[in-house]
Amino acid sequence: MKIERTLHSKIKEMDFKNISFGNHYSDHMFFSEFKDGEWKNSIIKPFSKILFSPGSLVFHYGQAVFEGMKAYRDKKGEIFLFRPEENFKRFNQSAQRLEMPSIPKNIFMNGLKKLIDIDRDWVPNDYGHSLYIRPFMIATSGILSAKPSKNYMFLIISTPVGSYYLNSLKIKIEEQYSRSSPGGVGFTKASGNYAASFYPTRLANEQGFDQLLWTDSSTHTKIEEAGTMNVFFFMKDKLITPKANDSILRGITCNSILSLSKKEGLCVEQRDINISEIIEGLRNGELQEAFGCGTAVVISSFKMISYQNNIFHFPKISNHKRLSFRLKKKLLDIQHNLSEDPFGWRVKIRRYF
Ligand code: PLP
Ligand code: COI
Fold it and tell me: What's the whole-model pTM score?
């Protein structure tokens, strides 16, 4: 792999005390292209614009997939990725569903680890802050027939991030629009899934809600996910989350929370969740907490849910008594190398250069 280092680092312009999500990119990016049936020309180079034809299929038919992962710094300054192999596997599952070539593990992992090594100064110090890493693949053939592309680009870019949401969330249960449907691409990180969610989300934002709670597209009675998060409900001392299906993105954070909770001895259930039981639980006080989780947000608790124009508030609990708060701390402590890593989730970035 070629390495071309920047001569003009932008790190001095980066204010690590005031970071919002994804508006400053680190100095370098990884780039590889798929041509003539193989991946070639892999390079780490300065973050820069990429050139391709306006006829490229990504613009017309949305052949594009991505991943989201994070690198964390520990107290000694060492850098760790969190479960990168899971992102690698899911990336190729998404690519397969979108009829795109899979990316070989050595290209993905080598590109990723060396990129994060070169840009290690971009990983923030503060607890909960991290370098958000975005691998993505786009279709670049410029022939307009509606067929899979022959050529693709795979890139990895990264951006220092702080908290995604500053406050707990006001959630609206969505009964008209759908994020995904059975047999569709909801279980993948296809870029088009996100574009399709923007309009209904904007309508909810205008009504004063932060995010939508998506329901199944056929009956709108079963809970799926919230915005770009998997969801958990803590009810009658059980932690429940919707059972995975092809309309739900199987989150790595969700999977990690399930493992952590089981290890703690919590009673955990993955099953269909009806809106009616959530509303009933909010009415009779048996639903103690609900929260969303994902790489970008880590864990974000819900403060209220709106259903058919009725507003239901969650009981007020102080932070340190909240299950979501305790789980978030457990997860972040592992991510920042502040606690044992019983599941072997951390991957230390060695110094290559
Ligand atoms: N659901 C959707 C639709 C997402 O975009 C994400 C974010 O990646 C998640 C769930 C959570 O997945 P993960 O924990 O792997 O980031
Ligand atoms: C993530 O949590 O990594 C996501 O993909 C959410 C992102 C769309 C902001």
Answer: 0.97
